[in-house]
Amino acid sequence: MILKQTLNDFKIIGYYLGKILIGLSITMFLPVITGLSFGEVNPVLDFMIAILATLIISSILTTTCFTKKDLSMAHGMVVVSSSWLVATALSAIAFYLSGHYNSFLDACFEAMSGLTTTGLTLVQDLDHLSKAHNLWRHVGPFIGGQGIAVVAILFFMKGSAGAFRMYVGEARDEKLLPNVIHSARSIWIIGICYLIAGIAILSAVGYYIGIKPANAFFHAICIVMCAFDTGGFAPQSQNMLYYHNSVFEFVSIIIFILGALNFNLHYQAWVGNRKEIFKNIETRAFFVSVILTFFITMIGLNQLKVYPQAMTLFRKGFFQLISGHTTTGYMTIYPRQFISEWGGVGTFVIICAMAMGGCICSTAGGIKMFRIAVLYKALREDSKKLLLPRSAVFIQKFHHIKDMFLNDKQVKAVGLITISYLALYLIGTIAAMAFGYPLLDSLFESTSAAGNVGLSCGITDVGMPAALKIIYIIQMWLGRLEFMSVFALLGFLIAIIKGKNVKK
Amino acid sequence: MLKNKLFVCRSYMTMLIFLVIECCLMLNTAYGESVSSNELISNARQYNGKTVRYEGEVIGDIMKRGDHAWININDGQNAIGIWAEGASVKDIAYTGGYKSKGNKVEIIGIFHRACVEHGGDLDIHAQTIRKLSSGGVISDTLNLKKLKIIVILLGILLFIWILELMQGKLQHRFPHN
Questions:
Q1: What percent of chain B is predicted at pLDDT more than 70?
Q2: Ordered alpha helix ranges (H), B36-143
Q3: pTM (2 decimals)?
Q4: Domain that holds residue B96
């Protein structure tokens, strides 16, 4: 029997949603400061409208739904999943007012793509977009990658239990420290430290390659925010091809590899436990997978003689592959070149890399390497069991921060999430094919959207059907939150309609 | 008289030679008409190594690298990187951005699908750069409609905050209600 929600349930959800929106409105002051610094009048007005609209909604929610009750697990999940939808709509206001988007749906697509660190874009005439709006495109992936709820936990949550439920709802499988508020703080400290170091290095590189100092600094902020949070947006329409420089590309690669690694791993390295990097099952699986997929990509590209020299083959092949595998989505080729030049093998391997993604508890998307590694271990265990006598007891161990034993419950949970991702990739592919796109193109774009990658083979365009834009928005949302909190929201909505009242 | 005839004949010959050279070039190049970026990207193998005519707006930064420079030209569909001599980009006064419209230029140069010199980038090595039209500053005048919306929203927010304050005071005065 499904129970209908009481007024208290709505009040709890509304109150905490309001708190999250206050956090969102604070972040919108960053583009306002940028606009004022560069003397951009109208973009500042766009953000003032967005800030006021966000504050009005958050004030209504926190006033009318005021409660001192803490969140239950279901509440936490519903708050997180609904906050991502509301934050998308509110973030899209400033985009829409810029006049660079065909419709509010396109602006919502951009906002969801940013917040989920995907990087697929529907912006028009990006090269003439204001610095304020451009910065907002890049702030989105940074706050989304670190976690919208994590921001709220950091500033507005006092109780640990409710904070933990929101933290879990945002697909954070692991805590860095026993206290969830300390974990959220550590995630932000790690992110901000890399941000500062990355901006300093990339500003210097930008200046060295001939970009004016102010622009070099602005580009560095944008690229580092999106690289560390595996976002994939860039300030210019050519994406990374704009810079025409290998050093710039190399520094970006380092940043987005760091972003794709588990925050827990960063924390371990910071506290001096550097051996963890080499012992961890997930990092091992990630590097084995990168080497393997890179090797096959090279074979595929070499067969078709796509690049005339070994060095160019390495530079283009590796950049696209690592960008896909870390689910960043930066490109140094044009989207159509994937299909027209890379051929079946190269494109398919990139799709596989995108589908697998980065590490859990990182800013990366995709199935995640921890799950791939656990499934591989489970498969190996089952194969060994077949060869051993029935009475033999076989225990599979692996190292992830600490030594762990592989158990059926863990394998089942990992298997369910993996199947959900595969189904999501497939649904998006079928949807795009239904609109007349070829199989490989559809699979590529669907995997990119659901895996929060951002590489495109050209389907994502202002001219694509509105229904497909909505499907990709849902895919990005589901992929980022890793299903559970979205399923909780669906359950909540079903209970509103079909639930039975609780008898007092 | 004979001198005149010889002169006319020589002129015709010169013209004919130029015509033949032009025809030969036309066969090996594609710069009769300007080619769009979409056409170049979609049929990169076909245009690879050929001289092309490409035109568009200069956007972003002019990135000087030694005695050469990179400029990026957007034709309204995509932007393509142009590798040019430093001296030839000196006259570009405006580049496209939020506050400015960039100079519109015409490039005649060799197109590379995967340039060996530049790490496999799709680019054009410019031979000549010609200014088609000058760019300029775009004025950013205050949008009064947006300002009105801000005033209205600010009024609504203040009203909610006053209500919130009153509700807080009431709750403080009558805690059991």
A1: 77
A2: 37-42, 44-47
A3: 0.91
A4: 31-137
